[in-house]
Amino acid sequence: MKTTSINTGWGSYKLTIDGVSAYVCPQCGEITIEGKDAVMLQKLSKSLVDVDENQKPDVLNLTEVADLLRVSNQTIYNMIKDGRLKAYKFGREWRFFRKDIESFMGGEEAYGIAARGKTGELNEKDAEIISKYL
């Protein structure tokens, strides 16, 4: 168990939460937080989404989308490659329309990001818990 900081945000709005207790995998170093902390972070992140529409950026970069979905940049690359996320390449940079990301987040496919079992599938109980807090 280690204490860490979690960074989240939306567009130009950034939020850092210090003092979050996390479990660290000794083999790969991956960090996992407790359910109650994840719910708290989701609620705080969601409050940023409730910002006035004209204050949100219309176009997001890859890191902003990864922060918003709480996944790694590599996961976003994979989601682009397999067609789950609509993205546009400008030079060497990927860009995303906010409306496309919000549409994705409101859809059923977003549950698969939040929690999956060892089989790669989301079980009914997990989906019920997730939908309760979203």
Automatic annotation (TrEMBL):
Pfam families (UniProt xref): HTH_17
GO function terms (MF aspect): DNA binding
InterPro entries the record matches: DNA-bd_dom_put_sf, HTH_17, SinI_DNA-bd, Znf_MqsA-type
Domain Helix-turn-helix per the UniProt entry, residue ranges: 60-105
Name listed for the protein in its UniProt record: Helix-turn-helix domain protein
Species annotation: Caloramator mitchellensis
Organism taxonomic ancestry: Bacteria, Bacillati, Bacillota, Clostridia, Eubacteriales
